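Predict the assembly for these two chains.
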Amino acid sequence: METLVVGAVAYTANVVPIWEGIRDYFRGSAVEMDFVLFSNYERQVDALLAGHVDVAWNTNLAYLRTVGLTAGGCRALAMRDTDLAFRTVFVARRGSGLQGLESVRGARVALGSKDSGQARILPIKFLADAGITLDAVTPVIFDSDVGKHGDTGRSELDALQAVLSDDADVAALGITTWQQLKQAGELGVEEVWTSPAYCHCNFTALSSLDEARAEAWTSHLLAMDWDVPQERRILEMEGLRRWVRPELAGYRSLQEAMREQAIPLTW
Amino acid sequence: MVTNAAAVTSDRRTQLAITLVDVVGRLATGTTAMIPVESPAEVGVVDAWCRGNGHSVLAVHADAVEVYRGRLSDLDSKIPTERMPGRRLWLYANFHCNLACDYCCVSSSPKADPRALGVDTVAALVAEAVTAGAVEVLVTGGEPLMHPAIDEVVGICAAALPTVMLTNAMLFRGSRLRLLDALPRDGLTLQVSLDSATPGLHDAHRGAGTWLRAVEGIRVARSMGFTVRIAMTVSRRDDAQEEQVRQFAASMGISPEHMVVRHIARQGEATSGIVLSRATLVPEVCNGRGCLVAPCRGHRPGDDGEHRLDAPRSEHRVDPRGIPRLPPSR
């Protein structure tokens, strides 16, 4: 079958070895693949819609924008096991006394980039769902990595830095950033509240992608094996143990947030 | 790695964690970056963070920790079979030494317990090594010439396998000169430590007047017909300094293939240096042809301090002049 072209966003230098590894893994399979790197998710979604790539490795926001821009004419093929249960964590200075979402009312809340699901869009929704609108807190905004949909983690680190330097009381972090930070030992910040799980990235294709090609490619992806050293290396770099079929219900909270916050389908 | 990470304040630990997530997160797997640290205890924080996130501490410098993105053990598969640890027999003939170098990885000194290997033990070890497929013997210490039967020890080794004896070349007089003269010329190389082309740096590590005596020793050994190799021990790579030593060696008739550059190991007396692992024992395991990993030269985050190690940049490649680099220091 014809080589499948996958788009991905180059948010760190490690993206290159990851995708070279995945490309090599597909060599000799029923559907081989190549990849194209983009500087931001908006360009990538444009390229998917224009047919320049067959599949896009999308963030949750990029996926939902694709859903919106195609009026549902797309589908998710697969995601990481870690994408099934992504969470946002609110943290504050250890001993601040803040505990639970209600305690955030009136606080200075550091939020990440405007296109980060985990550090900006969903935190605002979670607060709103608890009856805490943005005018009930003092938002401290860090649009540090717009275009990367929070992938770099930079805006989350800026938010945490604001708490450390007493420019904010609370910071919203993605669970993966928080878990990485905690490996240093007891930090000067602690969890205030952890959100319900939601879905993060997925491989998105337009509905027009040939079903047999899509399935052949997806099946081979799902067969990537943690117990095979060369394949494990790829899985570790991309932050998962296994690829899984998507569970679309996990995008509902972000979809609602986009509607509530009037986040446009493109900018 | 023994450091009191608990002594670091939680705020400072958070700051280090932010730096690590940011800097290492931007690296490609197989590259390194320097993380500035303010105390030895902070080295423990960096090490814990690396272990927890699947990364590695490559080297500890006086004011920074060099972090490798990924696990150094992932490089094991790239080590050529003939250079895998176990292919060369290292014999610590004795642990006492006429010097007390500040970077000695086994803390040898005049006060150290000699713990000398007996001749029979050496014979048994060498025979076993030959059976196991070893290809070379390296006799080190301490200063091997302080072993009273070093002539017999080296004789056994050199009769079985190509042998290198590491020495500071400062005891080539009197009875020890006679011991030296009793060593075989065939199958034996004397590896003499010389850290700089002038006395300053060498003497700073090894003691006043040591450079001059080492140079005299090199000349004596060569005049006696020994093959002499120079080993330069460095804390960070410095092309200019290496070139000076290379030229100085050439002035004594020692060719480039008989010079090695090795890194100080963070062992024994050394409080900074590379952290030992299979991958950092390069080119000990790679014969200087395609270093798997080697500390960089003091770059800091933000000044292009990234170095791919398994597909090295020029400073990590085999020296174009063919000079092997042998960590760690002894």
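The longest strand of chain B covers residues 227-234. The radius of gyration of chain B is 20 Å.
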